[in-house]
Every structure is written in C-alpha cells, then in structure tokens.
Amino acid sequence: MNKIILIKYGELTTKKANRNQFINLLDTNIKNSLKNYNIKITKNRVRMFIEVLNEEDFEIIINKLSKIFGIHSIVIANKTDNNIDNIKKEVLKITKEKNFNTFKIETKRSNKNFPIKSMEFNKELGGLILKNIPNIKVDVHNPELLIKVEIRDNDTYIYNEEIKGSGGYPVGVAGKGLLMLSGGIDSPVAGYLAMKRGIKIDCLYFESPPHTSEMAKNKVKELVKKLSNYESNIKLHIINFTNIQENIYKNINPDYMITIMRRMMYRISEKIMNKYNYLVLINGESIGQVASQTLNSMRVINNVTNIPVIRPVACLDKLEIIDIAKKIDTYETSILPYEDCCTIFLPKHPVINPKLEKCIEYETKFNYEILIEDAINNMETIDINNEKSKYNF
Predict the structure, then answer these.
(1) Cα distance between residue 245 and residue 86, in whole Å
(2) Do the domain assignments include residue 42?
(3) How far is CA 363 from the centre of its chain?
(4) Greater model confidence, 392 or 118
(5) How many structural domains compose the chain?
(6) Cα 389 vs. chain centroid, distance in angstroms?
(7) Phi, psi (deg, nearest 5) at residue 97
C-alpha cells in the first residue's frame, strides 16, 4: 500500500519560534492516541506524515485523528518518489479511479531541485489526463476534481481527499485547567472549547446524596468519557456537597440559596486548584441564561476568589451550545433526566441582582469553612479514559 496520511498544522504555523514546541506536543498526543496501532510518524515544520502499517486500521486511525486538537486537516495521499514518470503514472492512476467531468491540477514544488516548475508541471499533468480520459475538461475555477501534487525533498504526495481536523492547539500546551462539570449541556461544551485552546482539563463534580442519585454521577462519568475522546485521560474529582447544601437550605433566604451555593463551589474549586496546580477554572456559564449567570450574579459569586475563571460559552446562545454538544456527542447524555445539586433545591424566584453585603451576612449563619475542609478531605478522584467500557445507567 502506498497510501500515507498527511497532517496539516494550520494555526500552529503562526507560532514562529515556538512552532517546534507545538508540533512536538502534537506528535506526543497523536502517539498517545494511536498507541495501540502499528504506525510510523515522521514530521517537520510544515507537515507530519503517518504511515499505517496495517491497512485495516486506516479508517479507525482517521477517525481518532479527527478528534485531536492541533490538526487543521487530514490528507489521505498516494506517496511516490520524485521520478517524473512515476509521478505521472500515480496521477493518472488516481484520476482513472474517479468519476468527474471537470478537473484541475495544483502542484506545489517545495523541492526546488525538481526540474519542472509548478505551472509547467500542471500543464504536463493536465495534458496527460486529457489524453487518457475522454469527455472531460479543465476548470481552474470550480473543478469537480482537484488533484494536489506536493513535491517535497525525497518524495511526492498526490491527493484529492482532505478531511477537516478539529483545529486549535495541542492539548496541554497552555497548561492545566479545572472544569466545573454539572452534567448539563453547557459545561461539557465549555470543556471541549477549553481543550481546543490547548488546556489540559480535569473535571470537578458536586454531588449531593441522597438528594442526587448514583445515576446522576454515572451520567457525569459518561460525559467525561466522551470528552476523553479529545484528550486520552481525564481525572474526575467528586465532592460530596450534601452537608454544605443542607446548611444553605436551612440558614439562607431561599432567593439567595443558588448565589451562596455557587460561592461555596468557587471556594472549594480554588482550594483544589491550589492543591493540584491548576492554572484556570473553567465553567459553562452563559450570560443571562439563568439567575446565577447575570453579570451582577457572576460578579458577586466571583468575589470569593482571585483565581482566573474562563467561560468559553459565555457569549453563545443556547442553540449554538446545543449544536456543539451534538457535534461532540455529549448532548444525548446531558439531557438524561437525572437532577444535579444545582437543581434539587432550586427556589421559585432566585435573585438575579444579588447584593454582596447580603451574601456576606448570610454566610455568617453557618460555619462553612469547616464544611468545605471536610468535603475536600473526603473528595473522591477517579481516572477516566476513552478506552474503558461505558458506564451503565
């Protein structure tokens, strides 16, 4: 088999002096994702080349590559040497396998020692195709078939198939972040978008048994497993929030319960971030979507910490978020009807413009510091990766 996979870097090529750092991390991430397959990878500053040594694995590998951030596009190419006659033979072979009426040849000659210039070689190859395949013509503006020929130092790559990659930066290049994962639609999408910008994520889930069920926890595990398709291993930290939540319910004005609850979650998140050296907190807040996500609510909730917080879906509407959730296959899991701790004690009229001084006053009504320390000391942490079997609901 003379087929080979070409990886185009896209945005990574803008990194100039840091480009090698990005490419080397992408190489590592690809090798981790494909560690169970027989492949050979070579790379340079322009392309990465993956030889698949077992032809049966080709489609599986393409699918896995499509989920790796840092890849602009995936090309399935025919590889040959730089002999002119061999290139012509390979181009003709590819075109004879296709059904088309119009075509275009596009040659890129990075090897300047190749004796024929790109435009001249386009004409030679086009003439060869016209001579051997009847009832077709050249269309340089909108061809049905575009054949690309890349002539590099040692080999030539010929292709017409190009698969869109996930883009972005290789996961890990920006450091580690902690994702507040609720089990709803928004937070998995926020995690996906953070990974796309190169952030290695772990997840934090607040459970409140017996008010929340084991099925709700399994739902979150399954969401993490789906996110692990884009980053092979993710830790899920699980905090038992029951005592804190019950104290809020007993001591706090119902209108302020969600605001105080979120402030407690931020305090806990900060301590976990400091313990495990996470650089940023990530959540699925979308401006104005619910009472705790008005700008004033965000300001009051955020007041308990100085840690950086990013909200990747903040300026997306719900339909845009749902579209991404469906694309990354988290939507159907997110809508399973298992309540999380953010909804079990939801008041009828949660405050949308909370006052900071009232929050501080309400929080004096119970000793939350001890409860927070106890919750963190009893935190459960599990590793989830995309090779483990699915969790049963």
Answers:
(1) 72
(2) yes
(3) 38
(4) 118
(5) 2
(6) 21
(7) -85, -5
